[in-house]
Amino acid sequence: LGAARDEFESQKKKLLIEIDTLTRRLAETESRLKNEVEVIKKKMSVTITELEMSLDASNKSNSQLQNTTKTQATKIMELTAAYDDVNKKLAGSLQTYDITVKQLRQIEAEFKGLKATNDSSVKVIKEYESKLTILTTRVNELTTINNNL
Question: Among 1, 27, 80, 124, which has the minimal tally of Cβ within 10 Å of its Cβ?
Answer without folding.
Answer: 1
